[in-house]
Design brief:
By secondary structure, the protein is mainly alpha-helical. The chain has five helices and two strands; from the N terminus they run H-H-H-H-E-E-H.
């Protein structure tokens, strides 16, 4: 399970709509910064800054391939985040189930 600082950095990175769009694009396959910049009304330099933030928190990886530097989604990191979210969901569902049971018991005692 990722530690709190890792979670903070990843969720802070994903709080930005441009970075979420980049992650969504990379879910379809590798892309260069130039390719990632195409749908945005932003400079390639601005997209490079977003890529850097995503890379530093481990959500994407970038490799050198000759003159190209394609970016790739780090699926393992995404699974870690999804696992944390799933665990939180499980805990809340358990709490809500207990609350529902308690309310049913209170209603039965009143009725």
């Amino acid at each position: 399970m990722p530690d709190v600082l890792d979670l903070d950095a990843a969720f802070a990175a994903l709080a930005d709509s441009t970075r979420r769009a980049i992650v969504a694009r990379l879910a379809d396959g590798d892309a260069t910064v130039r390719e990632l910049a195409e749908p945005f009304d932003l400079t390639q330099q601005a997209i490079s800054r977003h890529v850097g933030i995503l890379r530093r928190c481990g959500l994407i990886e970038q490799r050198v391939d000759g003159q190209r530097r394609p970016c790739r989604l780090n699926a393992g990191r995404m699974r870690e985040l999804a696992g944390w979210i799933t665990e939180q969901q499980r805990q809340w569902e358990s709490r809500l189930d207990r609350l529902e049971d308690h309310l049913a018991a209170v209603r039965a005692a009143d009725g």
